Fold:
Amino acid sequence: MQDICLIGFGAIGALYAFALDKSSQVRVTVVCRSNFDAIQADGLEVISERLGDCTSWYPYRVLRTVQEATDRPYSFVICAFKSLLDVQPTASILAPMLDNIERSPDTAIVLLQNGIGIEDDIQNTLTSRGCNNVVISGCAWVDTTLIGGKTVVQRGKERLVLGYHRPKGHTGQFSEERAQSTLDVLCTLLRSGGAHVESASVDAARWRKVLWNASFSTLCTLSRTRVCDVLAVPQSRQALVDIMLEVLSVARACLPEDGAALLPDSVAQDVINNENPKSVFKPSMLVDLEAGRPIEVEAIVGGIVKRAKEVGVNIPRLEIIYASLLLVQRTLVSSSSL
Ligand SMILES: NC(=O)c1ccc[n+]([C@@H]2O[C@H](COP(=O)([O-])OP(=O)(O)OC[C@H]3O[C@@H](n4cnc5c(N)ncnc54)[C@H](OP(=O)(O)O)[C@@H]3O)[C@@H](O)[C@H]2O)c1
Structure:
């Protein structure tokens, strides 16, 4: 049995930890924060169209801190917390485990998070320590919520695109073959647990996913409105398209030819057309703002702005959105405990 450690037992973490456990091939250690007591006492209730229902699932181990999880090597260390790179970088959350990871070159780091460039911070940290552990990230097309800290609900479709990241500057030690076989192991485990997993070049998938977040999530958050509202007003509907066109131009400049070919300008209108004009959905960025929690501004917008600068693409709308959300974030962070 291989051991897997999953940090961040929220909606995404709970769903995929459950899928991994269902494979019956792994022992899943989970690190919880606010819901530690609830999970420890009653386990997790799962209500999932994809994975089925379970009234009370107990992970193999439920721990309170990353430090406590450093007692053994893991085949995968999965990060399923929000990507708050400006508040709590991934490497700082993983810090207690970095020595452990350094001693176990076969431990792969897996980031189940939205955004662009979310892998940079942990890859740079690993490189600076001389480690060449495989870094994988996953982009989830799913709508899942954790209610009361101990009931995960997933309705409708679920799809997880996973791929590995080549280290920046391509260090001589990176092995494409090793990264692919590590990725294959993870995909097989998740699939045998019932998840719908695709193995792909994850960068194109991440750009495709961030289109919605960089447009709908940001406009809904700044205006504190729902998806149906930003679609109802012609000016904000047009703004959604214009923002997505900026994202697409950066994406195409960053991606190799085959990836760029998947993201023509027409995708922006496809995204709008696919949305239900009556959707009362509130993006998680807005939900976080309303709850007074920091938002994923660096992952969702900052990453695009950074990449745009690197490739010399002008994105004036996104620059304004980024600046506005940084102001929102400033207030949230100053009044949060993080
Ligand atoms: N939910 C979805 O439908 C969905 C779909 C696609 C992609 N995503 C992406 O998936 C990622 C995770 O989202 P989510 O919806 O699962 O978020 P979430 O429900 O807020 O869960 C995040 C969990 O991580 C925990 N956490 C944060 N920092 C931690 C730390 N240092 N140590 C231990 N636990 C920690 C949080 O604990 P606390 O309760 O104490 O804050 C929370 O339980 C995000 O990048 C999101 O954008 C989500």
